[in-house]
Structure formats: structure tokens, C-alpha cells
Design the sequence.
């Protein structure tokens, strides 16, 4: 393989991966039905329950990236003609709506301008207008850096008889998330954000209520690859072959989750909170404008417009070429003028952050 | 991570992974839009074209296992109401038919008993009865060890105006396969068979004719995650973000394909042929019954009934527990009485095969 440059990853994901996780992936591959491997799967399931703070039996890692988890959540729950209320506040809300439409659902989008949180009252109004099979929302919108008022929206959805689907791709293990306590029915994530595992798997959990809705569907799930009922027969006690599990990626996830457990979820949330706030105050000091509404800012993903109308692309390229530091460019409404800076998992360390800030000072000093 | 037992993998996949491929996965993760990474993607695309023997521009690795590739092939080509003729000669043919039905297609199954090759005349009769959008067939049926008469079936399909979809999960880099020369429109594989890369990706290629059929669809592709038109914008020159590529798995695939190129495709096919024939003749000598029809036996996957009605499960467990050797159990019509022995990629080495045969002799000597 060609030599790869050294990078420190402060983009919207992937984040830096711990050496022990990289080492886990280099272990020899064993069979996906080997007793030693299925024992490891059981441990992954248990650690995922701890990370999601759930007792859901159906909790596993889907064999695809976070977007596969998104599609798995929707394609299993939605039948053609079902109504879905989707909170749209950025790229990933738009993606939820698009996938729900492809599932044949009638989609009601509840939209807000980029950078704003979704208004729970609007979700409620949409549900009162017409009942819905589900409400889907992105917890941590990676395109804007906004933390959505998930707890309140989930409560409203449940009160109105809708299932609650939550995208926790960027939130899991980075900010507080309580699947059972908040009444979430399906919650999925990605491995390459605050879990600091390489991209390729999507941790996902289904409540008994969600599984009952799937069991009583009138039509087959449109996707075979993402059919949770079949996949559950492999992850559960039956061990019925569905597709070959991505062995090495599951080694990596096992080790990544072990590190989360070793640190403790609350300590990990606090680390992200403290360093995220520090980053944001430093950026403001440098003349950046934070684009997420105050009170709803994610610590692990900061969208910030560059000072003085600087060319974000040129400055970002300098960070990469001269300092080996990756940050993300703005998307959609923020394209061309903003960065998205991730502080996730192993990238969220004080010494790395200090190097980032030093590099940003240099690059911005020249660019403004 | 817990210590894993040492295994030599002679099951139906995964196969043993070369040390340099394991090492590639332990490299630090860089961003999926990093210029260094997209350069590596270009190289993967080029090496996949060599492995598939195709000039198809749309050639890449789908972010899921071989079954995701199967679903990607069908969900992009089929619209509700389309007719699909599917060759069914084992588990993977059945899976093709099931996925095609979930895509809304009207499926005509052309079936043969387990162990037999599909009869091209039956495919032709089905196509003459009523035109079809596509013919789908498994090249190397992993559940029976049969090599299907692909070249002839592809020719018949094309002559009758149908697109040709081929499952090459177990055949790619193990037996001759010529995507362009044989007129195949979509061909997908898996990484964990004759490529000897861990499971998790699905190499796939689409002909210009297939892409034109997709471009002129009347309805959107039902799957967003597997929408080849969108994915192509990331793998192609535009580099538009679709989903985060599975970075570490793509490192592994890059190295696995480099090893294929270093050995040479023809030498690799010959290695599989020679050792597969040797295994099969030794098994017959031990009293096994080969279950695939003569003349259609795959060298890289042998389905064989145990001598004297021995309990396959107990004997297989002894191989695993006492020798650290994995073979697969029979499926479907072969369950309970047969093994499936894979000789794929790095597992297909004379010294490993000799150890396998020695262990089989010991276990069978006791079991009969």
C-alpha cells in the first residue's frame, strides 16, 4: 500500500482511531460462525446497550456505515403510504426525508433554517394535523453543529402515537443520550465519530415496540440486506446465517467500545463538553462566527464562519498541507464560508486541540 | 479484545487473510475526502477492473458485504413490475430471487436440483416465453460447489434483450471470469473469498448498458444507500460526498488486490484449479462423495458427503477443536451429511491443504 500522510482528524468524521483499535483490526480473521467469534458478538451487543443506555434485546452493529443504519431504521418501519414526520435542519435531516420517500412513505418535513434547532411545537402541530407512523430526527446535525431538542420531541411523538427514530451518528458517546429513558424506538449511529472506530459499521437498537410494529407489517421489508428480523436471527441465540459479518471491523468496534467503557460514558461526555466549549470560545476570540444557535451547540462538532470573509477552502488546504490537520468544509447554506470542526473521541484531546488552535491562528493570521 | 483461537479457514468464506493485508488495516485512518485517500480509491478501481477483466468505468467496492452487492445490482436495475429470470440452484440463487421480488419484480425462477448446473435451454425457454429486464445467475454457487455455465447463459440472455447480472462472490480471482468478453452487465463479488480480504466490502462493476438502463428508470431507486448513480459521484472525478467510505477496509482491499496483481490472475486461477482437483481426488479416496455434477465442480468450493453416513457436525467440531481447522457444514439439501470445503485465496496453499487432509483422515478414521 502507498505510504499515507500523517493526519490529525478534526473533520466531521472519521476521527482519530486509538492504536489499540487499529491493532485489533490486524488480528487474524476467524469464521463468522466460530464459537469464539459469536462470543465476541455477544460482548459487542452488551457494550452497545451500555453506550445507548438501553435494555433493548435487538441491539447490534449493522454491516454498513451510518447511512445504512438510517436506511435500516426507516425501511423496516415504513410501508408504502405510511406517514412520516421528519425534522429537517440540515443535510442529514434531508437524507432522512429522502430515504423515507424512497420507502414509499408520505413525508411531512418540519424544517428550520440551517443553524436553528427544530421547534417541538411544529412537530406537534404536524402530528395533530394527521397521525404518523413515526417521527424521525437527527440528534446531532453534523452539517450545522446543532443539538436538536430530542427529549422533548420524543415525548411529543410518543404522546401522539408515533414511533421515534433517532439519528445518533454524531451524538453517541459524545453527548448525553438515553434511548430507553427518552422513549426512543430506533436509534442508530456510526463508528467513525465519537466512538473513534474506523467507518464501516452502524450500531443500532430497536425497542420492543419497534419490533412489534415490524412483526405486524402487511408487506415484506423492501430491503433484504437491511431486514432486521433476519439479521436478528444471526445476532441472537439462533445464529442463523444471513450475511457474512464484517469480522475485522467488529474486532475494532469491540475494542473501541471497551475503551468507552473503561473511560465511562459520563466522563466521556464531560471531556467532549469541556473541550468543545474551550474550542468555541477560542474560535470566537479569533473572530470566527459560531453558526449554531446558542444553547444548542454541539461540543463535538462546531460549524464556524471564518473571520473577515476569508476563503475557507484555501485556508483549509493550508491546514492539511502544512500542518497535517483535517477540518471539514461547510455544506449547504454554510458552503464556502465556514468550517466544520470535529472534536470527537480520540481527536478530542487537549494536546491535539492546542495544536489545532496554533495552526488555525497561523493560517487565519495570513488569510484575513 | 479477548484472545482469539488460531484457525485455518477452509470454510465457504472468510478465507485466511495475508499478513500484509492485516497490516494494511492497522494503518492510521485518514479522511474519506483526503487527496491521499481518493488517490488510493482510484487505484482500487483500476485493480478491480483488472480482476473483473473489464473496462467498465463504474467499477468500485460497495460499502457492505457480498449480499449488499447483490441487492445493489438488483435494486438499481429493477423497477416494480419488471420481469426477472433467475437461475436457482442453491441458497444464493434463492437469495437473488427473493431480493428481486422485494424490488417489486415479477420473478421467473429457473430451478435445478442441488448439485446440478442450470440448463441454459431452460433460461432460453423462459426468455422466449416472455421478455425480461434481466437474467440473474450465480457463477459459483457456494452452497453446492457448482460452477454454472455462465458464458452460455450470458450469451442467451443478451440475444434475448435481457441485461445480465452475475454473482461472482465466490468466483472472482478463483476461476476464469471475463466480464466484458462474456457480455456481463453487472457483476458483484465479496472480499472474503478468493480475494482473501476480510468480509465487509463488495467489489462491483456496471456496464455502460446497465448504467443507461438505470439512467432511464421511470421511478427512483428504492434504496438510497445502494443507489449506484449517487455513489458513482463519489468514486468518480466529482468526489461528491454520499456516505463515509469504509477507510480501513479499503486499505485492506487495496493490498489484497495488489497481491492478486503480483501473482497474476491466470496463475491464481491455475493455483486454485490444481489444488482443488487434488483435494477432490483425495476426498474421493477417503470415501467422500462429491455432490457437484462432474464437469461443473468448482475447485475453490467443494461440497462433499461424509463417508459411511458419518455425523458431519460432530466431525466438523473435532476439526475445529482439535486441529483449529474450519470447514463449513452443508446447507439445504446437503445439511447434516456434507461439508463445504473452501480452498480460497490464502487458504489455497499446498502446505495448508496437506494439514487439512491429515486432520480429515484422523477425524474420519474415527468417525466411520
Sequence:
Amino acid at each position: 500500500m502507498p505510504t499515507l500522510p500523517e493526519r490529525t482528524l478534526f473533520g466531521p468524521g472519521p476521527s482519530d482511531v486509538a492504536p489499540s483499535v487499529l491493532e485489533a483490526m490486524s488480528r487474524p480473521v476467524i469464521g463468522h460462525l466460530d464459537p469464539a467469534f459469536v462470543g465476541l458478538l455477544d460482548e459487542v451487543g452488551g457494550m452497545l446497550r451500555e453506550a445507548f443506555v438501553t435494555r433493548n434485546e435487538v441491539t447490534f452493529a449493522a454491516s454498513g456505515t451510518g447511512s445504512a443504519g438510517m436506511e435500516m431504521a426507516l425501511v423496516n418501519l415504513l410501508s408504502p403510504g405510511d406517514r412520516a414526520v421528519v425534522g429537517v435542519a440540515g443535510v442529514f435531516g434531508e437524507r432522512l426525508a429522502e430515504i423515507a420517500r424512497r420507502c414509499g412513505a408520505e413525508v411531512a418535513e418540519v424544517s428550520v433554517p440551517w443553524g436553528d434547532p427544530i421547534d417541538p411545537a411544529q412537530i406537534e402541530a404536524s402530528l395533530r394535523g394527521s397521525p404518523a407512523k413515526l417521527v424521525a430526527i437527527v440528534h446531532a446535525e453534523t452539517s450545522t453543529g446543532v443539538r436538536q431538542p430530542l427529549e422533548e420531541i420524543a415525548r411529543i411523538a410518543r404522546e401522539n402515537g408515533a414511533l421515534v427514530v433517532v439519528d445518533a451518528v454524531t451524538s453517541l458517546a459524545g453527548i448525553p443520550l438515553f434511548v430507553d429513558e427518552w422513549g426512543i424506538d430506533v436509534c442508530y449511529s456510526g463508528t467513525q465519530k465519537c466512538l473513534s472506530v474506523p467507518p464501516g459499521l452502524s450500531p443500532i437498537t430497536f425497542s420492543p415496540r419497534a419490533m412489534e410494529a415490524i412483526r405486524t407489517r402487511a408487506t415484506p421489508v423492501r430491503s433484504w440486506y437491511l431486514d432486521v428480523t433476519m439479521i436478528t436471527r444471526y445476532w441472537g441465540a439462533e445464529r442463523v446465517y444471513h450475511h457474512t459479518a464484517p469480522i475485522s471491523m467488529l474486532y475494532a468496534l469491540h475494542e473501541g467500545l471497551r475503551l468507552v467503557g473503561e473511560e465511562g460514558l459520563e466522563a466521556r461526555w464531560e471531556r467532549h463538553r469541556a473541550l468543545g466549549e474551550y474550542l468555541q470560545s477560542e474560535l470566537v476570540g479569533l473572530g470566527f462566527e459560531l453558526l449554531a444557535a446558542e444553547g444548542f451547540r454541539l461540543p463535538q462538532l462546531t460549524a464556524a464562519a471564518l473571520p473577515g470573509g476569508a476563503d475557507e477552502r484555501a485556508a483549509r488546504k493550508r491546514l492539511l498541507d502544512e500542518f497535517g490537520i483535517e477540518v471539514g468544509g461547510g455544506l449547504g447554506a454554510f458552503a464556502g464560508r465556514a468550517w466544520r470542526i470535529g472534536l470527537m473521541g480520540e481527536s478530542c484531546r487537549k494536546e491535539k486541540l492546542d495544536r489545532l488552535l496554533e495552526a488555525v491562528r497561523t493560517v487565519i493570521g495570513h488569510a484575513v
Summary: The first strand of chain B starts at residue 8 and ends at 10. Chain B touches chain A through 72 residues (CB under 8 Å). Residues 265-285 of chain B form the longest helix (21 residues). Chain B has two domains: 8-14+265-367, 19-262.
